[in-house]
Structure formats: C-alpha cells, structure tokens
Design a protein that fits this description.
Elements (H helix, E strand, L loop, with lengths): L1 H22 L2 H6 L6 H5 L1 H65 L16
Length: 124
C-alpha cells in the first residue's frame, strides 16, 4: 500500500512538472496565453497604471533635459548680453564726459578745440 502511494505521489509530481513545462513554454509566453491567467486578469489595472507612470516618467525626463539645454543656451546668451551692455555703458560714459567738457568750454568762452591730429607718430 505504501509503495502504491509513493508511486501515486511521484506520478502527481511528474504530471505537475510536465504540466508546468507545457504551461510555461516559449509559445505560451510569447503567444499571449500567459495574459489570460487569473493573476494577470486581476492585476490588469495595476499593470496599466504602472505602464502609464513609466510613460509619464520617460516623457518628463525628456522634457527636463530639453529645458536644461535651453537654460544653458539662455545663460550663455545672458553673459554675452551683459558684456555688450558693459561695453556700451563704457562708450556712452566716455562720450558723455567728452561732450560735457566741450559744453563747459563753450559756456566759459574758452576757445579750446579738440585736437584731431595724433600726438605721437610711430616711425619704423
């Protein structure tokens, strides 16, 4: 009797293994039959939620990378504009000082004029 129950137990194990191999074959997985299992059917909403979250995460990552490159470009442009602003401010200050001096000279009645010739001549 004990021998029969052992054989019966082994037969159950062998049939379970054979059924498992048959159930989890490549054609079973890639054919889509695995999706008809109770676990996948019950958790389909969870899988859909996870899929949507992954899509949102990936799109957010691309959006952030795009914004970071745009910020870098704008920072570079801002530095260039600051340099241009400093140069223009210096030129404007110099021009306004010269114009003020000429104006004061005319008000005081002094007949000094701007020298248009170079002071030093460079010779070879």
């Amino acid at each position: 009797m004990e021998n029969i129950s052992k054989e019966n137990g082994w037969l159950r194990v062998k049939s379970a293994i054979a059924q498992w191999k048959k159930k989890f074959s490549l054609s079973y997985l890639f054919g889509g039959r695995v999706l008809t299992e109770d676990f996948f059917i019950k958790q389909s909403k969870l899988f859909l939620l996870i899929f949507c979250l992954i899509i949102i995460f990936i799109s957010n990552r691309y959006y952030c990378a795009k914004k970071l490159t745009e910020m870098g470009r704008l920072k570079k442009e801002m530095v260039d504009l600051r340099y241009r602003q400093v140069i223009l401010t210096i030129r404007l200050t110099a021009a306004s000082q010269q114009a003020k001096i000429e104006e004061l000279l005319q008000e005081k009645g002094l007949e000094l004029t701007k020298n248009n010739t170079t002071i030093y001549q460079i010779q070879k």
